[in-house]
Amino acid sequence: xLDKALMNxxxxxxKKTQSFLAILTAVALLVSLLNTFVPEGHILHCSTFxxxxxxxxxxxxxxxxSVDLVWGYLGILSLGHGAxxxxxxxxxxxYLMRQIGDRGVYGDxxxxxxxxxxxxxxxxxxxxxFDMFWFASLMVILVPGLLAFVFGWxxxxxxxxxxxxxxxxxxxxxALQQAFFRNEMGFGGNNGLTDFKEIMGFDLxxxxxxxxxxxxxxxxxxxxxMACRYIVCSKLxxxxxxxxxxxxxxxxxxxxxxxxxxxxxxxxxxxxxxxxALYVPxxxxxxxxxxxxxxxxxxxxxxxxxxxxxxxxAVVGAILINYAKSTFTGWLPDAWLFALGGIFVFVTLYLxxxxxxxxxxxxxxxx
Length: 367
Prior knowledge:
By secondary structure, the protein is mainly α. It has one domain (2-366). The chain is built from 15 helices and four strands. It has helices at 2-12, 15-36, 48-72, 81-98, 113-117, 133-157, 162-180, 207-233, 235-245, 247-252, 257-283, 293-306, 312-331, 336-350, 354-366; strands spanning 193-194, 198-199, 202-203, 285-286. The protein has a two-stranded antiparallel ribbon. A two-stranded antiparallel sheet has the order 2-3. Helix 13 packs across helix 15 (354-366). The chain is globular, with a radius of gyration of 21 Å.
C-alpha cells in the first residue's frame, strides 16, 4: 500500500511538474523583487502595469488548465468555460461593488451607482451577503460549480456527447450573455460592474495590492495545477482517459461514465470560476462581454497551441497566445482574429500535439 502511494507521488511530481512549479516560483519571486526593490527608471524595473498584465496572463493560464482537464483527459470539448470564468468574476465583482459604499458617484451607502441610476429602491436579495469576503469567495466556488453540476447531470445522464455537447455548452454561454445584458437582471447591464475601490481593505490602485494579487494568482495557478495533476494521476484520471479513448467499452465493463464526467466537469468549472474571481480585481471591470462565445473558443485554441493533455502545455499556450494578442492588436487590431485563425490552422496541420509536444519530440530525438 505504501509502495503504491509512493509510486503515485512520483507520477504527480514528475520532472515536468517539478520544472513547471520551479519556473512559476522563480517568476513570481523575480517579478516581486524587480517591482519592489529596483527603482523606477532602471532598465530592470518591473512596472506595476507589467505586474498586472502578468497577473492577467496567469488567470488565463489557470482557465486554460481547467479546459485541458476536461478536453485533454476526458475528451469533452467544452465551449462554455468562458461562462464559468465570467460567473466567478461577477461574484467577485459584486463583492468589490459592495466595498465602494458611499464613495460612488451618487454617494448611496448601500446601492451601487447603476442601481441608483436605474431608480432601484432597495438592494436585490441576491446581492445580500456580498459585503463579506468569505461569502463572495464561497459564491465564486458554488455558482459556477452548481451550474456545471446541474448542466452536466442533465447532459451526461442523457449521454449527449461530441459536437452536440460542444454546441450545447456554447448555447449556454450565449444565453447567459444575453441575460446579463438586461438591466433588470441587476448586474449592471451592458456596462457591467466597475469603478472598484478596494479589496479586503486594501486600495486596488496601490502597487503593493497589485503585486499581492499577482502573487495570489501565481499561488492559485500552482495549487490548481497540482490539483489537476493529482486527479490525472489517480484512478479517476485513468478512468477519465479510458472514457476519452473508448467510452462505450468503459461503460460496458461497469464504470459509471456519467459520474466520472460530472465530477471532473464540475471541478474544472470551479477552477474557471476562481480564475475569473482573480481576474476581475486586476483588470478592474467585469461585463457581459466576458460571456461571449468567442472567448470560450479562444480558450480551446490556447490549449491546442500549447499541447493537449499535458496541463503545462495549456499554461504555455495561454501565455503565448495572449502575449501575441497584446502585441499584435497594438499593430493591426482588426487583423488579430485572422492571425488567431491562422495560428490554429497551422497548429492543427503541423503541430497536432502543440508547441510542447513538438519540443518534447525534438528533445527525444536529441537524446
